[in-house]
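Troubleshooting log. The previous structure file for this entry was overwritten by mistake, so regenerating from the original sequence record. Sequence copied from the archived sheet and checked twice against the printout by T.R.
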Amino acid sequence: MLSIVSTPIGNLGDLTLRALKTLKECDAIVCEDTRVTGKLLHMLDLPKKELISFHSYSDKKKLTHILERLESGEHLALVSDAGTPCISDPGYQLVSQLSVNHCPFSIVPGPSAFLAALSASGLPINQFIYLGFLPLKKGRKTLLESLKEEKRTIVFYESVHRMKKTMSELADALREQPHRPVVICRELTKMHEEVLRTTITELPHITFTQKGEFVVVIGAM
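Regenerated output below.
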């Protein structure tokens, strides 16, 4: 069986008791980066486990190997580097194949950075659209321009190195909606957690701390 386990996005206290039990009892852990997951196990004072890397560059042989182990009766846990698996990592490929192979799995829910940001935004989130990371080149300008017509709250991730450029491009794409609300969340659940509330027109003038992970939430007009 496969257990899809959410891990903390910063604060270790956010790991659920069920997640902790699952990581203790599973036979091995499928993860993006074995170094990151190994460090997490050490910080949680959990026993060492076999770590199976599965990331965007993994080939079909690795997927087949994992499926064979599940079919043989092993209990594997699937984690991402942080937060809920399958949202911005290739774990969905494994889960999709499980359905085809009729393999059982269970969900161990928990932290998610974009859901935490939506909760902190103070914006209507009865309907929202999640964009993951924006495309780096192809389709980027078209996507930003399309946000002018989006009536739902928008949420996406951005790296610290691209924040200033992205916010400038966003301000340009939505310049006809200068008072549209924007909430920028940085280092959620961590010591230097920050939630900044602003508007489209102010984005080019904001100085961003060059550290941490960012989630951007844009309100509807």
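Helices lie at 17-25, 34-43, 60-71, 91-101, 113-121, 140-146, 163-173. Archived copy saved in two places this time.
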